[in-house]
């Protein structure tokens, strides 16, 4: 029974790592929404300022989405603390799907 409990905990840790990786990947890929300036041409300080101001809507969306995903991630981590308390039941649910 003790060996089975250890295997269940290990399976739960693997699932937690997988979900952490998925959240990390989602949060990292959001950076791709930003445009990059044309580096071949020199930009004046006015052009740089205009470019950055044009990026503000994307920055607001990025920050909002980042915070939303962070809340979901935190909630997911909290759920795993509850899963550890009910490993036999959750272990059965994980492998039934």
TrEMBL record:
Alphabetized UniProt keyword annotations: Ion channel, Ion transport, Membrane, Potassium, Potassium channel, Potassium transport, Transmembrane, Transmembrane helix, Transport
Topology of the protein relative to the lipid bilayer: Multi-pass membrane protein
Ranges annotated as spanning the membrane: 21-39, 51-74
Source organism, top-level taxon: Bacteria
Keyword Membrane part of the UniProt annotation: yes
Catalyzed chemical reaction(s): K(+)(in) = K(+)(out)
Pfam families: TMEM175 (PF06736)
InterPro entries hit by this protein: TMEM175-like
One Gene Ontology CC term in the entry: membrane
Cell location: Membrane
Keyword Membrane: yes
Entry's Gene Ontology molecular function annotations: potassium channel activity; proton channel activity
Similarity-based family: Belongs to the TMEM175 family.
Protein's name in the database: Integral membrane protein
